[in-house]
Amino acid sequence: MSRPISCRLIGAVGGLIGLLSGCATLGDGTGSRLDLVQERGELFCGVSGKIPGFSFLSPDGRYAGLDVDLCKAMAAAFVGDSSKVQYRPLTAPERFTALRSGEIDLLSRNTTHTLSRDAAGGNGLSFAPTVFHDGQGLMVSVGSGVSSMAGLSGKAICVGSGTTTEQNLNDAFAAQGLPYTPIKYQDLNQVVGGYLQGRCAAMTSDRSQLASARSGFKDPQEHVILADRLSKEPLAPAVVGGDQRMADATNWVVYALIEAEERGITQANLDDVLEQAVADPSQAALRRFLGVDGGLGAKLGLPDDFVVQVIRATGNYGEIYNRHLGPGSAVTIPRGPNRLGGEGGLMIAPPFT
Question: From the centroid of its chain, how far is CA 22?
Answer without folding.
Answer: 26
